[in-house]
């Protein structure tokens, strides 16, 4: 899959089928929409494409009210690729984008740049200035430019719509089994290991650090707390057990930048720069502020013991990340 930062002018001979949405989490509803688009594209000689926005429009207009992020950009990209999409466009949501009228959006982006002949969106899709236009407007304007439009209803599971809102609620509650049911896969977070402040190493519990949200992003991850996890990408073909703290480290002063810190229970070494994936297995506890470092270290040891029991490992000296 080709990934574009921005919306290019595709070659004139290209006929594109385009799915439009935020696709946060790429849950089963998103997957159904994307796979349906790919099926249509295959039968009509079109290139299956997805158009998404970075940042989320709500992060642009009201950062403090923006929804929590379910997936990292890398995880979103991988999940969209797995549905068969061939071209993914990350459109920068800016003042210019926000000011486009509904017809300008269709003409300037879908027609002039992407040469779209087919477009699919969710039934709750909004676009155009102030988000006033919806699927019916897209159908009407699209017809003017020869674009066929399909608005898909949300998939229902257990008598409820599958939606990013429902998925965020499951993650906020630490209900990883419900999140897996909505995603159709375990909840994971991936990225390259970066240098942190080495506080975990100072306390005797070195961690692998990821950035769960882009630098400067105001939205928090949908999932926070301390978790038993399995990590891939360190040893080829093998997952390693560990404990992950996802949050803003309330016991070490706290900060506005959320971090994902993982201590591997039975592995030590240099992993900086490696691309790893953290698979969340079970929530151990919420993040909390401890009164002193001794209390924090005791909690870290307890987290490690609980994780070892979950994974059927021997109870021995081990660690967990700073929480």
Tell me what you see in this structure.
This protein has two domains: 159 residues, 3-Layer(aba) Sandwich (Rossmann fold); 126 residues, Elongation Factor Tu (Ef-tu), domain 3 (Beta Barrel). 30% of the residues lie in helices and 26% in strands. Helix 7 packs antiparallel against helix 8. Strand 7 and strand 8 form a beta hairpin. The two termini are 37 Å apart. It contains ten helices and 14 strands. The protein has 323 residues and is α/β, with parallel strands linked by helices.
Write the layout of secondary structure elements.
Layout: E1 2-5, E2 16-20, H1 28-44, E3 47-54, H2 57-61, H3 73-82, E4 87-92, H4 95-99, H5 102-111, E5 116-122, H6 135-144, E6 148-152, E7 156-157, E8 160-161, H7 164-172, H8 176-183, E9 188-192, H9 199-202, E10 208-210, E11 225-235, E12 238-247, E13 259-264, E14 275-285, H10 293-311
Parallel strand pairs: 1-4, 2-3, 2-5, 3-4, 5-6
Antiparallel strand pairs: 7-8, 9-14, 10-13, 11-12, 11-14, 12-13
Helix pairs in contact: 7-8
Catalytic activity: FMN + ATP + H(+) = FAD + diphosphate; riboflavin + ATP = FMN + ADP + H(+)
InterPro entries: FAD_synthase, Riboflavin_kinase, Riboflavin_kinase_bac, Riboflavin_kinase_bac/euk, Riboflavin_kinase_dom_sf, Rossmann-like_a/b/a_fold
Function: Catalyzes the phosphorylation of riboflavin to FMN followed by the adenylation of FMN to FAD.
Short description:
This protein has helices at residues 28-44, 57-61, 73-82, 95-99, 102-111, 135-144, 164-172, 176-183, 199-202, 293-311; strands at residues 2-5, 16-20, 47-54, 87-92, 116-122, 148-152, 156-157, 160-161, 188-192, 208-210, 225-235, 238-247, 259-264, 275-285.
């Amino acid at each position: 899959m080709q990934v574009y930062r921005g919306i290019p002018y595709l070659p004139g001979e290209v006929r594109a089928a385009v799915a439009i949405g935020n696709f946060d989490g790429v849950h089963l509803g998103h997957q159904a929409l994307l796979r349906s688009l790919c099926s249509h594209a295959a039968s009509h000689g079109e290139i299956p494409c997805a158009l998404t926005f970075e940042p989320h429009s709500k992060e642009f207009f009201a950062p403090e009210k923006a929804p929590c992020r379910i997936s990292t950009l890398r995880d979103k990209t991988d999940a969209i690729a797995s549905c068969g999409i061939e071209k993914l466009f990350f459109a920068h949501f800016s003042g210019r984008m926000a000011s486009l009228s509904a017809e300008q959006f269709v003409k300037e982006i879908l027609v002039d740049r992407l040469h779209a002949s087919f477009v699919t969106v969710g039934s709750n899709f909004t676009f155009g200035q102030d988000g006033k236009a919806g699927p019916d407007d897209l159908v009407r304007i699209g017809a003017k430019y020869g674009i066929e439009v399909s608005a898909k209803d949300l998939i229902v599971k257990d008598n409820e719509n599958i939606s990013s809102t429902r998925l965020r609620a499951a993650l906020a509650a630490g209900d990883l089994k419900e999140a897996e049911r909505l995603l159709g896969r375990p909840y994971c977070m991936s990225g390259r290991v970066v240098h942190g402040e080495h506080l975990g190493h100072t306390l005797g519990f070195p961690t692998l650090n990821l950035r769960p949200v882009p630098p400067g992003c105001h939205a928090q991850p949908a999932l926070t707390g301390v978790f038993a996890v399995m990590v891939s990408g360190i040893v080829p073909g093998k997952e390693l057990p560990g404990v992950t703290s996802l949050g803003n480290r309330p016991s070490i002063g706290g900060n506005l930048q959320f971090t994902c810190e993982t201590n591997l229970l039975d592995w030590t070494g240099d992993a900086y720069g490696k691309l790893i994936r953290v698979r969340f297995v079970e929530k151990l506890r919420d993040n909390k502020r401890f009164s002193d470092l001794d209390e924090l270290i005791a909690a870290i040891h307890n987290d490690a013991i609980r994780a070892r029991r979950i994974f059927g490992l021997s109870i021995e000296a081990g660690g967990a990340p700073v929480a």
